[in-house]
Amino acid sequence: MRNVSNFGVVVESLDLTQVEFRLLHLLSKSSISPCSRSRLVELIYRDEGQVADLVLDTHLKKLSEKLTKITQVDHPIQLVGASKYRLAI
Questions:
Q1: What is each CA distance from 10 to 28, 40, 68, 70, 78, in whole angstroms?
Q2: Where are the alpha helices (DSSP H) in 17-86?
Q3: Cβ distance 24 to 60 under 8 Å?
Q4: For residue 16, what are the CA distances in angstroms to 8, 23, 50, 56?
């Protein structure tokens, strides 16, 4: 990760996998209305057939850890209700 200073604004880069990038994109689009777990699986793993819950949990955890490092927010991905997610940053 590197910092780039541009006109007094610090921009930090994230090293994301393709799946983490897709998750971030979907979660950022659904900040007002949380995205359901089934919808995330459907959109992210559409070409991979059936995916175990643990796979999505692992990607969410890793993305959350990376976001925490650059935002200083403890839980940047929030679980809403039983199975919906949203960004808290």
A1: 20, 30, 16, 11, 25
A2: 18-29, 37-44, 53-71
A3: no
A4: 25, 10, 23, 15
- 16-87: which CATH topology? Arc Repressor Mutant, subunit A (1.10.10)
The three-point CA angle 17-19-4 to 5° equals 40
pTM recorded for the entire structure: 0.79
| pLDDT confidence of residue 47 | 72
CB atoms within 10 A of CB 32: 6
The string of pLDDT tens digits covering residues 65-74 is 999 998 888 9
| Per-domain boundaries in the chain | 16-87
Mean pLDDT (the chain, rounded): 84
Phi first, then psi: give them for residue 52, nearest 5 degrees.
Answer: -70, 150
Question: What is the predicted pLDDT for the residue at 35?
Answer: 92
